[in-house]
Each structure stands twice: as structure tokens, then as C-alpha cells.
Amino acid sequence: MMIQRRTQAERREGTIRKLLDAATETLIDVGYAEASVQRICARAEVSQGALFRHFPTREALMVAVGEDIGAQLLERYRERFEDIPRGDDDLVHAMRLVRDTCRSRLNQAWYELSMAARTHEHLRNGLRPVGRRYHDDIATLARKLLPDAAARLGPTFDVLVGTIIAVFDGEVVHRFVLESPEEDDARLEILTGAVRMLARPT
Amino acid sequence: MMIQRRTQAERREGTIRKLLDAATETLIDVGYAEASVQRICARAEVSQGALFRHFPTREALMVAVGEDIGAQLLERYRERFEDIPRGDDDLVHAMRLVRDTCRSRLNQAWYELSMAARTHEHLRNGLRPVGRRYHDDIATLARKLLPDAAARLGPTFDVLVGTIIAVFDGEVVHRFVLESPEEDDARLEILTGAVRMLARPT
DNA sequence: GAAGATTGCGAGTGGTTGCTATCTATGTTA
DNA sequence: TAACATAGATAGCAACCACTCGCAATCTTC
Q1: CB < 8 Å from A in window 162-181 of B
Q2: Residue B40 near residue B26, CB atoms below 8 Å
Q3: Which of A135, A162, A190 sits opposite B160 (nearest CB)?
Q4: Mean pLDDT, to the nearest integer, of B58-67?
Q5: Residues 47-106 of B with CB under 8 A from A
Q6: In the 8-state DSSP scheme, what is residue A155?
Q7: Distance from CA(B69) to C1'(D24), angstroms, rounded
Q8: Could you check: is the Cβ of residue B37 within 7 Å of any atom of nucleic acid strand C?
Q9: What pLDDT, on the 0 to 100 scale, is given for residue A89?
Q10: Identical fold, B7-55 and B59-199
Q11: Residue A120 confidence (pLDDT) above 80
């Protein structure tokens, strides 16, 4: 039964895409350890043989998932950064954007990979360039959105951006065990105020 | 062959302690998923039957490990907080203490449990009270160490403490994939400056 | 010291794991 | 269209998983 005529490249890309998406969703649902090739393949509606045709090991698939997630998250940032209206409160919007992205579904998969990378050397090595690119690209984007503050702060600006992301990533990790929305909101305000103070000319 | 005369309670406590310590070390070494009962028991030099005599499931053991780690981390904070010399730079010392503790071996095990809690409901429920107590006790300790700032800031002080911890926890998670010591040090300085600014009277 | 309770042991349970080998189906090239 | 390359499916592998069970060792109580 022939459904449709496709080139080899199309077939290949199609199943790889299905596998990456299924792996990402499985990662979000059950975490790295329980994201078995069986589960991923079942979700992708593809056989295990197909998976191992395109990825030599499960870990290699996970590295590819990491690259894919990194690209998607960056794209997400790019789109929403552009949508932020320039003005006095663009910093507030930017802070909210970072927090929302850290809490996004997609980012949960990234946490799973990061954590697994701690104890899995291959994964760590594979994820490192992705992490670096992600880090740098976000700094570039932020400079584009807040050029005045960037110019004023110089290299400190990048550190500040990294710190804001670190705050919200840390917050999310805490939330895995214990949620405290009021404190989170208070933190967002304090943090915004502190950044505004640092970013303003002395 | 009788080695030593011990009460039942001593025997019991002894093997439980061995299991908790072995489980903690195994968590640090291979992560939550690979910390199997086999591995833990081998490390504790105790049979699997002994483990399941004291803990109904592996997850129950992990909750107990979480409680134990929480107590140890708090004790660590308590000791080192007391050692900080009061003076102009006590804030610097406190910040360094928080960062060091976040990077400590013991805290790696806590990250493993926190992350696993995201997808394991029982673990999350068991860890929640531990997390809450840990959170509150640290805030209390910090108020004791920095009474002036605490008085000046009111409830904001607790949020600030939580934020500092969040920064370093987030930093550690980033470091699992990508290390950047220079940025980390720059962040520590900026953060200390910002906190000092916030904590000083306006 | 006998009886009873608690604790520790280790073989065995069914189930899942990542991965391979073999085969068929589909697309490409001559 | 014949020969070949690529892609996908299926069954099966040894290793490991959390957990159970009957028994032996140890401690407590009388």
C-alpha cells in the first residue's frame, strides 16, 4: 500500500522529526531516565529499528533533542523579544518573558537533559556547544532589545542577563519540590527594581 | 560469630544510617535513576532484604534521604554561619557560603531528588515538608546573621535570601552543561553589590 | 535458658532496559 | 526494468530492575 511518493530525504527527515518531537514530549512527561526508546518510539509511531537506523545510541538521540530544543527556545525568545513594545517598561516585559520561558514546557525537557548531563559524560559533551550557543545568542538578543542599558553596562550586561536567567532557573528547580507564588512575584519585583537601578546611569 | 553486643535499636539505626549514607553517595555518583537498590545495598554492605525491611519502597528510602540531606545541609549552614566574623564584609562571607553550599557534594544529591520529584509524585509529596522546613530555617538563620539588614527590609529580606539561593542553584544547573568561572565570579560581585545597595538605608 | 519478636540474608519473581540481527519495503540509479 | 542503496519492522538478547519470601541470626522477655 503506497500512501504517497516521497524522496528518501523526506522520509528520513520525517521520521527524525517525529522522533525528536516524541522524545521531547516524553522527556517532559516522564523525565530522562524513564524516556526509554520503547516509549519514545511508541509515541512517534515508529519502530525501534527505525530509531537506531538514525541514531547510534539513545544518548545520541538525546543530544539531538538538546540541539533541537535549544533552537526552539531561542526562536521563542527571538519572536517574543521582537513583540515587546519599546518604552519605559520594556525591562518589565523582558523579565516576564525570561520567567515564562524558564517555566515553559520546552524548558522542562532542557532541565532533564542538563541534570542527566551531570552524570552522563557523552550527553554533557554533546550538550556543551548547544549550551554555549544558546547562552551567547540570548545575550546578543538582549543587547538588541535593551541597547541603552547594554551600552552603559558594557560586559557587565551579559553577566546581568545570565544572572536573571539563573534566578528563574533556580526558582523553577525549587518549584519542583515546593511552590510559593507570592514569594516568586515579590522576587520578580525586587529583581526588576534592582536591575533598573543597576542599568540606570549613576 | 558474635562481633559485638548491640541492642535491636542500635542494629536498626546502624543499618538505616549505612543505607542513608550509601544512598546519598550513590545519588551523587550516578544520579537518581541509576541509584538502584542493588547498588545502594552493595555500597552499604547490606542485603536488599535488609533495605526493604526498613523502607517499604525505593521511593520511601529516597524521601528519607531527602530529610537526612536537608538536616545535614542546614547543620552545615548553621556551623559556618556562626563562624563568619561580624563586620563590614559579613555579607561577602555569607554570599560565598551560600555559593559554596550550593556547589557542595551534598547539594548535588538534593538536586537529583528535586529533579526526580518533578515526575515522581510520591517523592514530591514526601520532599515538600522537608523543602519548606529547609527554606524557613535558612531564612531564620540569615536573619540572625544579618539582623540590621533584616530589620530594615522586613519581609523583603526573606525574598532576598531566597533569590540569592535561587541564583546559585540556577548557576549550578547551568554548570552541569557549561562552566564559565569568570562569569560566575563577576556575577558574585555584581550580586553582592546589588544586595548591599538594597540592604543599606535609602 | 526457652519462647517470641525483630532484623538480616539471598535466591527467585515477572517485567523492562538498550541494542542487534534479519528481513521486507521503498526509493534511486543504470 | 534490473541492480543497488536506504529506510523501517520485527523478534530476540543478556542484563538489570524493584520487590517478595522463607529462613537464619540476633536480641528481648519471661
Answers
A1: 162-163, 165-171, 173-174, 176-178, 180
A2: yes
A3: A190
A4: 97
A5: none
A6: T
A7: 34
A8: no
A9: 84
A10: no
A11: yes
Q: Are A185 and B180 in contact (CB under 8 A)?
A: no
Query: Is A152 within 8 Å of chain B by CB?
Result: no
Place of cell 533495605: B51
Segments making up each domain of chain B, as ranges: 7-55, 59-199
CATH topology of domain A1-55: Arc Repressor Mutant, subunit A (1.10.10)
Distance measured from the CA of protein residue A9 to the C1' of nucleotide D5, in angstroms: 13
Alpha carbon distance A89, A96 (integer Å): 11
3-state secondary structure of A139: helix
Residues B98, B139 contacting (CB under 8 angstroms): no
Supply the pTM of this predicted model: 0.94
Grid cell, residue A1, equals 500500500
DSSP H helical segments within B84-120, as ranges? 90-103, 105-119
CA A104 vs. chain centroid, Å, equals 8
Class of domain B59-199: mainly alpha
Rounded to an integer, what distance in angstroms lies between the CA atom of residue A165 and that of residue B171?
9
Count Cα atoms within 13 angstroms, Cβ side, for B151: 6
3-state secondary structure string across B45-84: CCCHHHHHHHCCCHHHHHHHHHHHHHHHHHHHHHHHHHHC
From B102, which residue of chain A is nearest by alpha-carbon distance? Answer: A170
Q: Buried b / exposed e across A153-192, counting CB within 10 Å, b at 16+?
A: beebbbbbbbbbbbbbbbbbbbbbbbebeebbebbbebbb
Q: Grid coordinates in use for B132?
A: 519548606
C-alpha torsion angle, residues B91, B194, A201, A85 (rounded to 10): 180
Determine contact, residues A15/A50, Cβ cutoff 8 Å: yes
Task: Domain B7-55: give its CATH code.
Answer: 1.10.10
Q: What is the pLDDT of residues A127-141, one digit of tens each?
A: 999 999 999 999 999
Q: Which of A117, A191, A198 sits opposite B177 (nearest CB)?
A: A117
Nine cell digits for residue B177: 552543561
**Is the per-residue pLDDT at B170 higher than 60?**
yes
Q: Residue B25: how many CA atoms within 13 Å on its side-chain side?
A: 12
Give the whole-angstrom CA distance, residue A24 versus residue A62: 9
Percent of chain A with pLDDT over 70: 96
B3 — pLDDT class (breaks 50, 70, 90): very low
